[in-house]
Specification:
Elements (H helix, E strand, L loop, with lengths): L16 H12 L4 E5 L6 H11 L6 E6 L6 H11 L11 H13 L5 E6 L2 H4 L6 H12 L4 E7 L12 E5 L5 H11 L9 H8 L3 H12 L7 H15 L11 H10 L3 H10 L8 H8 L4 H14 L3 E4 L4 E4 L1 H10 L5 H23 L4 H20 L6 H13 L1 H7 L1 H18 L2 H18 L3 H15 L6 H16 L3 H15 L7 H17 L3 H19 L4 H17 L2 H17 L4 H17 L3 H16 L6 H18 L2 H19 L3 H17 L2 H12 L2 H7 L5 H16 L2 H24 L3 H19 L4 H11 L1
Parallel strand pairs: 1-4, 1-5, 2-3, 3-4
Antiparallel strand pairs: 6-7
Length: 809
Amino acid sequence: MDLGIETYFEAQFVGRKDELRDLQAAWNKKQRMFGIFGMRSVGTSRLAKEFLASVSGQYDELVYVNLKKTSDLVAMYVNICAQLTVSVQSHPNDVKSWESMLFCAVSTRQTQYVFFFDNGEYFIDNEAENREPLHKLCVALLKQNNIKVILTSTTKFELESLRRIYYVCELQPLKPTETSELLRAESPGVDYGEYLYPIVELSEGLPLLILMITSELRGDGGMLTPKDMAQLLAEYRLKVLSREFYPGKDRVADVYRLFINRLSPVLQRRFLVLDYIPGSFTAEEARSLLDYPTVAVVKDRVLVPKLRRHFITYDPSNRRFNIQGILRECLKTFFALRHIPEIRKRFCQTFTEVMTSISRRYTSQEYASALADFAFEQPNLQKLLLEIQYTTQDTYTFFIRMATESTGFIEQYLTGNSEDFYSQCHRAADRYGKETDKAVVDIAVGSLYTYVKAKFKEGHTKYSAALSILKDAEKSLQLATVHQRIGSNLMLQERNEDAITHLKKSLAISLESGKPFELIALQALTSMGCTLTKLGRFEDAEKYHFVSLKRRRKMQGENHPDVGTTLNNIGIMYDQKGDSRLALKYFKEGLEIMNKSKAPDLSRVALLTNVANAYLDVGTLDVALNALVEAKEILSKQRFPQLYLIAYLNDTRGKLYFQQGNMDKAGEMFEKAAWGREDVASGKTNHVESLVHLMKVAVKKGDTSQCIKTGKSVLSYSDDLIKQRPQTNILTECYNCLAKVYEAMGDHAKVRDTLTKIKTELLRLEHLYTCDCNEGQVVKIRQQLTDIECKQKAMPHTLDKVTNTKTVI
């Protein structure tokens, strides 16, 4: 049905089923006024046309008025009268005369009319002088029983007096499924493949953009492929969809530039300032950036007017506003933002408050709400970190505050921008700050190197620089922090005794300094527990871990990721102690809390791998495999995955293959793990552990030369290993592998010598476990000693004769 209604392209009508159904239901309920509102080119006119077609049997005549093409009220009335075949003898000068002439003709007919006013924003914007006359006309029309009215507009038309018979449809962009349908319908034969999703995203559900995209894909014999289009849209969307050979009404840039030009100069300026926020924003954030006195005022003067004109969107469930992407592009392309330094300062001030609030709540029982807020604020906070490059004396304090209060949060969630941010902070501290500011930045950079990049020596260097500044100052949160960070860093380097020295200093300051020090006290308690576990001092480690657990639950709640991490550390302690049952229990509890709290994916990798190791120890390979698959999937999606986590995962996968009897895959995984661990900390316990695992594979494969070569590397680290972790059994496992290959080679002298070394190492471990009252491990060690003695007795007695003979020769 051709109604002569102006719509962009006569394309297939796709989607809008819900909107069309609701409009039809309102029609059947005797609603008489229908307002269809949405942003420019979202499809309001086309929906109105389809709606009218669907109810065409229920009215007799349509009067269509395109207000975009009507210069004034007189022209509008002339148009209406012409369609109604009302004879106009002379043009009246007043509106009432036009209305009288019009209604005289309509009221005497039995015809059922629909008056359709299209592009209503040209008459009803606040600044338009025709708004009130149009309002009165609609009211007058609806007093006639044989008339219904449809109005489309980018500006919402409020008719409070007609609310009982007025149905309002707020038209949103097409849904992704509808966008995909329209793309395919308008470009038959085009195989979008993997580029469908990015093209759908970049079209933003706006029919004009979708139809321009399909026009480009159809043009020139299909020279542009979906891959080409996805790349062009990502980099030059506005230009590609606004080529000069298209009519002006179809060029995307012209359509939306003119749309923005309809705003008053004051609202345009406010719109530009709001665009400085890259993501969605709250009313309070808008108030702060626009420097209004209250939220109520900014809503009344800026947000509500823009909402009614469909320049911004509002999500009532999250109470956040946003600007459509294509409008942002037009703002940046065609409109200049003034007073940028002042706006930048307000932006930094606004979102520094947001950042510190989120990071503070992230370490408390408000973790879930902090994470939910971050999901919305992420683009804004990423831009905030980049603003450091424009630092002035006015904005410097904001960045130092973030470096002081939000380091942990930045490390975990904004890693991609953090290194440059901290280096810029350091340079800014040279220009504007104090020595203590430099120390704060050095602590932050040290944490970045230690916990994100696993560059422990570089991290220690930065921490040491901070300590050299802070050591002569009074006890402070920064001093407690740097001692804790150094202790944690040294623990990761297996310098455990040195680590304890610093951790004790951190605890001495933080435990007696009140609530502001509580978080750093918890971190020091946790680090102390982990360090004591490595040293085999399990009874002391247990005390620190459970004190940390109790205090964390009180401060952070039962379901905080840090509570899950603490349970994981307790599991490691019991695993090292030899209690695999308790270890698995705490690993599972920790993982459950991590999952409940929706902890960052990366923080779950170590726990999943620990769970897998625990199940491998009891032979439950299928459950171990599931945990490893999940951990691997998480790591594969990370932009900055920690090397030590990758290495740990590879080592555990190697154990799984080993138990399955697949020595080739086991060797491949152990080799990758050894390389990764060597890069992180050469010669340390984890690196040597992977080397011993490679020795076990070599034994199984009968590769005696490789086993002996690797064994020599392991034994070269023996003194350092015992110092790092006195209760390690890595050397015993290494000697066992060597004994097996020497036996396979028939070198009985080396077998006997190696068994003696095993016995010596077991006696050392027996003494340590006895002093630690670890009866379970003592029993295991004594059983191994018995086995060694039996092997020694069973050795051939000809060994000495052979040796003597060789000596004589």
